[in-house]
Each structure stands twice: as C-alpha cells, then as structure tokens.
Specification:
The chain is mainly alpha-helical. The chain contains ten helices and no strands.
C-alpha cells in the first residue's frame, strides 16, 4: 500500500464526529495527499481558508433562493473538509501547536453561529414569522452552553485540586481507542465500524450539523431543521448541566466529552 496514504490515514482522528468519520475526514485525506508536501501551505492557512469558506457559505444562505442554498450546502461541506485537513496536515508534519488548536476550535464555534444565524434569517425571510429566529437563538445558546459547561467543570475541579487536569490528561491518554477499521482492515470490519458510527448522530455535534444544514438547504426545509437543532441542544445542554453537577460532587475522574 502507498506509504504516504498510510501515513495520512494514521492522522485521522480515531474517535471522530459522525459525518466527519466516513465523509469529510476521508475527503480531507484525499486532498491532503496532493497538497500536504507544499511547504508554504500551512495548517493555520488551511484553517483560515476553512473559515473564509464558511463565511461565504453563510452569505449565500442570506441571499436566499434554491440555487444559492445548493451553493451554500456545497461550501459548508468544503469548509468542513478543510477543517479536517488542517489537523491532519499538522499531525503528518509533526507541527501541532497549542495556538493552532486554539485557532481551529475558535473558528469552529464561530462557524456554527454564522451558519445557524444565516439559516434563521433565511427562514424568517421565507415565513415572515419570528419563530425561526427564536429557535436559532435557543439552539445556539444551548450549544454554546455545552462547551461552557465542559470548561466550567474543569475549572471547578482544578480549584479543588490543582493536579486534576494532569490526572485527567493521563486518564484520557490511557483510554485512547485502538484502530478497528481502516485501510488495513477487511470489508466486514469496516462495515461493522460504519454501522457502529451511526450512534453518534444522537450527539448532535458539529459533524451532525454539517449534514443537517446541507440537507435542509438542498431540500429547502429550514424551519423544521431549526426545530431539530433547538430541541436537541436544549435537551443536551440541560442534560450536560446535570451530569457536570454530579461529576463535580464526585471525586472520580471522568473523561469529559462535548
């Protein structure tokens, strides 16, 4: 097997998000195969390209119309492919950095707000009803709450025990998943992995949003998608809040997911 492709595949996140696992991350590997050795093209530049593509896609959503919606859906997917490429490139070149990771996560958060904000505006223009705006605000607020609760949990635990983050990091490194599918595995192993990955759709994270947004734009069903977005984030935000409170009371170190 091609050594370069094997090395690139090894950079794929083992526990990736739902749509990223079997669509955008493999596409990112395919694109990286041709550009990863271009020295002037850095992971941070790829992150910037991803973010700019996301902004352009949001503008097409705001413009409205079936054709613009389809263009936006394609650009949203392209933006997410670039978003997968930057981390893969950094790991392939062994140039990962804290600043790069911060920049990547920051733009990811802003992109979600831009996309759903644009969808809310477009749905309002279609219906002249404030309900899509309300659903957008609920969804964005509780999606942001999920991330805030994660870091609030870490901050609270560290205020009780300064060694908490070190213990957490050590436990995370000990529980890293081994490969169970990929280029070196057979069809049955990959099929089993693919079926198991479908459970992740219930996590309603960024990987799911890419699929939801694109499908809603192509089918022009914006308000129903916003209902799914708002209700899923409301439920997950409240559930995470309860889980974090239980974890804070406990002395057990628990891996903190989104």
């Amino acid at each position: 097997m091609n050594e370069k492709l094997t090395c690139l595949w090894a950079t794929k996140t083992k526990d990736d998000e739902w749509w990223s696992s079997f669509v955008t991350a493999p596409l990112a590997i395919a694109l990286n195969y041709f550009v990863v050795d271009i020295k002037w093209l850095t992971p941070n530049k790829i992150t910037l390209i991803s973010f700019l593509t996301a902004i352009v896609s949001a503008l097409f959503i705001i413009l409205g119309g079936a054709q613009n919606f389809i263009i936006a859906a394609v650009l949203i997917h392209l933006s997410h492919v670039f978003d997968c490429m930057d981390g893969q490139m950094a790991r392939y070149r062994n140039t990962t950095s804290q600043l790069g990771g911060y920049y990547d996560k920051l733009t990811d958060q802003i992109q979600v707000i831009l996309w759903f904000g644009a969808i809310g505006y477009a749905a309002y223009n279609q219906s002249h009803n404030v309900l899509p705006i309300f659903l957008t605000l609920i969804g964005i607020a509780f999606y942001s709450l999920r991330g805030y609760l994660k870091y609030l949990m870490i901050y609270t635990k560290m205020s009780q025990d300064s060694q908490y983050f070190e213990v957490l990091s050590k436990k995370e490194s000990m529980t890293k998943k081994e490969d169970t599918a990929g280029l070196k595995f057979g069809f049955s192993a990959n099929l089993k992995w693919f079926i198991a990955e479908q459970r992740k759709i219930l996590l309603f994270n960024e990987g799911v949003f890419i699929f939801m947004l694109s499908l809603a734009l192509v089918l022009d069903v914006l308000t129903p998608m916003l209902w799914v977005f708002a209700l899923s984030q409301l439920y997950l935000g409240l559930m995470r809040g309860w889980q974090r409170s239980v974890q804070i009371k406990s002395n057990v170190v628990i891996i903190i997911n989104k």
